[in-house]
Amino acid sequence: MNPLITSSAIPRLTRREWLKLTAAGVVGYSLSGWLEALAADAAADPKRRRSCILLWMNGGPSQLDTFDLKPGHPNGGPFQEIETAVPGIKISEHLPKIAKLANHLAIIRSMSTKEADHGRATYTMRTGHAPGGPIQYPALGSLVAKELEPPDAELPSFVSIAPFRFLSPAAYGSGFLGPRYAPLIVGENIANLGRAPGQEPDRALKVQDLDLPAGVDGRRAEGRVRLLEEMEQEFLAERATVASLSHRTAYQRAVTMMRSEAARAFNLEEEPQVLRDAYGRNLFGQGCLLARRLVERGVPFVEVTLSSAPGVANGIGWDTHQDNFNAVQRLSEVLDAGWSTLLTDLKDRGLLQNTLIVWMGEFGRTPRINANKGRDHWANAWSTVLAGGGIKGGQVIGKTSADGSTVEERPVSVKDFLATVCLALGIDITKQNDSNVGRPIRIVEPGAQPIQEVLS
Amino acid sequence: MTYLRLWLLGCVVLLTAGAAARGADPPPAPDAADVQALAAQIDKYIAAAWASAGVQPAPLADDAEFLRRVYLDLAGRIPSVAEARAFLKDPSPDKRLRLAERLVESPRYVTHWTNVWRGILLPEASANIQARLLMPSFEAWLREKLAANVGYNELVRELLTVPIDRSGIEVVYGPRREAGSALAYYLAKEASPENLAAGVARVFLGIRLECAQCHDHPFATWKREQFWGLAAFFAGIQRDRQGDFAFPRREVADKRELTIPGTERVVQATYPDGTQPVWRFKVSSRQTLADWLTSRKNPYFAKATVNRLWFHFFGRGLIDPVDEMVGGESEATHPELLDELAREFAAHQFDLKFLIRAIVASRTYQLTSAATHPSQQDTRLFARMPLRGLTPEQLFDSLSQATGYQEAAPRNPGVVVLGGPMSPREEFLSRFTNQSDRPTEVQTSILQALSLMNGRLIADATDLERSETLAAVLDAPFLDTRERIETLYLAALSRKPRPNELERLLKFVENSDGEDREKARRQALADIFWVLLNSGEFFLNH
After folding, report:
1. What number of C-beta contacts closer than 8 Å exist between A and B?
2. Averaged pLDDT for residues A85-102
3. Cα–Cα dist A303/A43, whole Å
4. From the CB of residue B418, how many other CB atoms can be counted at a distance below 10 Å?
């Protein structure tokens, strides 16, 4: 073993340490006048960047009953295939509206990954790395938020709608990128295990504590904030460090958001009833509507979790160890309405070409049907879907074996998949971020083979 | 206003020195002179580096700044109004030392440092569902060890040699989990030799070995063989896997080799310094490793520990990062000091309290965090105290202390396993968990800011009807506006307002207008309390 290196020389602050200070998101906000509202209409930005909407299928959706059916095989189950808008591509009969929009979809039937436990797989699919080490990897949403954040954003750049974080909280964090890129969470599904799903979506999809407490009016709140700014000057002048400036920056951004016109994104009641009905009057459907309203206002990454449907008994939506077919049918109905309306709504507003939609869960389900009419965890061969901005739709990538258990063509690993997502968003996958262990970490691990043929 | 509240007010606000605050000083500890001597050594080496770098250090913190800092660091919360008044009023010159001695012997020391050590030893707890389920039993075990102040070498030895069998698992998961067990450590590391080796190397040796798990270390001299040689000490642990969970089942005591996954290469248990263990009859490989690790012959153990504690108090290690002490890019900033601390720590039976008392008694620890000269900028010279973020527990307990919030009887933490509504405390802790393992770089999120600005806890604390501390201050007939402002400052910031602040805030109250003059004044005081609780000065340890 090496001796502990001894030297009394004290080196100067290294470049890396300086970089850390700037990377912490502190530099760039002036110390004075932070109360002046930032006037910018994100939606009207002519240099509009791409956005991403991740539809997260919590629990691992069954590929055999959604996008990769095996009719006629004992593993196939009772669902029928239906034709889609693209000749030759067939999907589940319980996704009829999505089928009509198949020209926008690139269906990847050859996902092949290693993790088949919820916690580990969730972390791996959402960060690109297996959990366990000292490096706190950021979620995909945080990475994208950092790259695509508009310079004058009034809203947080990563919004997570109805997440179910329990199985892997770190998979929803910003890791070494820090709280600046942490998701703003609305409608968290903390407690739906063992409970009837279907909480009241309008209430659930509000930002917590965005409104003033009862009994405090706007005038008084402004007075408080002004007094806070004034009384803090001395402390900050003497103690301007990452921690104190970040505290001030967070208050600045919180106040900006409270006053922001853009925060009206959360007022779903502004939308026509017909459209709201079309999205589906449930947490996921209304979450998709909220995602559109956020993307419209320039938010670069929004994720919507589908983890429950009426009549699905288990708490982790797609984790269908029992009663798979009933549960998948009901979940598909919720999915079909929300996702198809989202696609058409984005298209009608001219937003689809700039908005990538990703459909995935943490893994797929076993081709074999178990004794409880369920399917268990399966990472060896499963499906994901990419749609919209940056994607050449109307195609299927890869192929699984006749029984569905293995990938026969074009296996896609976690990093291949994440690299494809980043490239579709125009992000340089070789770019590095400083990590909490002092070593730079690439946005996507080296060695990824992106699926070039789906990129438009 | 109720009589009860009036009575409480008398106790809390006005009694300037409660019996508990003044009368309960323990007799001087037998090693008090050693504590002073080590504190002097710390100051000597730190000052020598200042001199050679031409640094003008910051002056000593005033009593209030020290008071708040030492409460947060040793007791995990800010002081009460009565505790603050008592300390600030006390004229005796040795009051800082006496306060530190008292806090380190208080039950809050055990509570706070249980959180600290759980964070160091079980960093998985935030990311891993299994680790979170295990926290109650692990914390119970830690509490017991810290309350008895067992030597750190003993604590680590017990951690590393805990028997692996079925009965232990039942304690960890069963109804007796309050009894506590160190077995949670093995469960959290999924009982895998590589996770255990990585954890042991990081915390007990100050070495980050796990990059060598798959390849030779790119930045340092660690070889793959060294990593697996350490992992092989845990090769005898047999485990079961069930879904997301891995359980250690039993142990084959004499299995001391393993095959590097994906290769044919078999590696024997070998100490990281390359020496071969001497195996003794009926002594397990874990026992053998624990003996070597915690012996005085292993210099890395004491150094890694004192470096980590230094990091805890000063926001960076004497070698930094603290888990790259060997083979990393960084050199020790004060090598002689590191040696001295390690030597004294070992000479005092690895007594954590001894080390903590010496650090807190040093002048270096007692410097102000306010910058007074540009030369204090380089954080490696410790020329002023850095600002550090609070742990979620420190923040919640401090808010409770300041506002008078009391949670209904805490639930058995182990019962809440899946789902169920979280208590306000659990919800708060989950919202304020931060991912940065560097307290000086802690960042605030928008949701955290919103939650402090508009959330229920502070909304209630600044509401004229529902507040505790605020209502007591407002309703006291014997206080004038000036004294009310002063009491709110003591409650939130543990200090009195400076003259310019008091003048400004008196004006703020006087200028408040509304149809109901008295109500407007009360609201203005509530606004002042809101401002103090939302300030960076409250949110950070400075």
Report:
1. 249
2. 98
3. 19
4. 12
A190-193 contact pairs (CB < 8 A, 24+) = A190/A164, A190/A165, A190/A166, A190/B419, A190/B421, A190/B422, A191/B419, A191/B420, A191/B421, A191/B422, A192/A164, A192/A307, A192/A308, A192/A315, A192/B419, A193/A166, A193/A315, A193/A316, A193/B418, A193/B419
Q: Which of A261, A360, A445 is nearest to A52 (CA)?
A: A360
d(Cα A451, Cα B236) in Å, to the nearest integer? 43
Q: For residue B418, give the chain A residue with the closest CA.
A: A193
Query: Angle formed by the axes of helices B392-403 and B424-432, to 10°?
Result: 130
To which residue do tokens 């830690």 refer? B142
Task: Give the global pTM.
Answer: 0.80
Per-residue pLDDT tens over the stretch A400-413 = 999 999 999 999 99
Question: Å from B7 to nearest chain A CA?
Answer: 28
Taking only the tens place, the pLDDT of each residue in A186-217 is: 887 644 433 334 457 777 898 989 999 998 99
Task: Find out whether B52 and B467 touch, Cβ atoms under 8 Å.
Answer: no
Tens digit of each residue's pLDDT (9 = 90 or more) over A71-87 = 999 999 999 999 999 99
Q: Do A2 and B221 touch (CB under 8 A)?
A: yes
Question: Shortest Cα distance from B163 to chain A (angstroms)?
Answer: 24
* Closest Cβ opposite residue A436 in set B52, B437, B530: B437
- Phi, psi angle pair for B177, to nearest 5°: -60, -20
Instruction: Work out whether strand A105-111 and strand A184-186 pair parallel, antiparallel, or are unpaired.
Output: unpaired
Q: Which of residues 238-257 of B touch A (CB under 8 A)?
A: 243-244
Q: Which residues of A touch B369 (CB under 8 A)?
A: 238-239
Tokens found for residue B4:
């009860």
How far away is chain B from the Cα of A194, in angstroms, using its nearest Cα? 8
Q: What is the pLDDT of residue B325?
A: 82
Measured between alpha carbons, how far is residue B438 from residues A10, A44, A432 in Å? 21, 39, 20
The residues in B 418-447 lying below 8 A from A, measured between CB atoms, are 418-422, 430, 433-447
Interface mutation target, options B135, B444, B541, chain A, most CBs of A under 10 Å:
B444
Residue A315 has pLDDT above 90, yes or no: no
Please report, for residues A225, B375, B497, the alpha-carbon distance to residue B541 in angstroms, rounded to integers and kept in the order given: 22, 22, 18
CB contact under 8 A, B299 and A4: yes
Q: What integer is the mean pLDDT of B23-34?
A: 77
CA dihedral angle for residue B280, residue B284, residue B287, residue B289, rounded to 10 degrees: 80
| Chain A residues within an 8 Å CB radius of B450 | 207-210, 254, 257-258
- Reference B369, options A240, A21, A26; nearest CA is A240
Residue-wise pLDDT for A137-150, tens only, equals 999 999 999 999 98
Q: Which chain B residues are within 8 Å of A378, Cβ to Cβ?
A: none
Subunit contact B418:A215, Cβ cutoff 8 A: no
The pair of three-digit structure tokens given for residue B489, joined into one six-digit string:
């400052």
Q: Place B347 in a pLDDT band, splitting at 50, 70 and 90.
A: very high
User: Looking at chain A, which residue has its C-alpha nearest residue B374?
Assistant: A238
Confidence of residue B117 (pLDDT cuts 50, 70, 90): very high
A244: closest CA of chain B, how far (Å): 6
Closest-CA distance of chain A to residue B418, Å: 7
Is residue B496 pLDDT above 80, yes or no? Answer: yes
Question: Which of A156-165, A352-361, B78-87 is least confident?
Answer: A156-165
In this structure, what are the phi and psi dihedrals at residue B258, rounded to the nearest 5 degrees? Answer: -145, 165
Task: Tell me: ipTM over 0.95.
Answer: no
Asked whether the beta carbons of residue A180 and residue B443 sit closer than 8 angstroms, the reply is: yes
Beta bridge partners of residue A54, listed in sequence order = A303, A358
Q: What is the pLDDT of residue B440?
A: 85
Contact call for residues A299 and A155 (beta carbons, < 8 A): yes
Residues 161 through 200 of chain B touching chain A, CB cutoff 8 Å: 190, 195, 198
Phi and psi at residue A74, to the nearest 5°: -55, -30
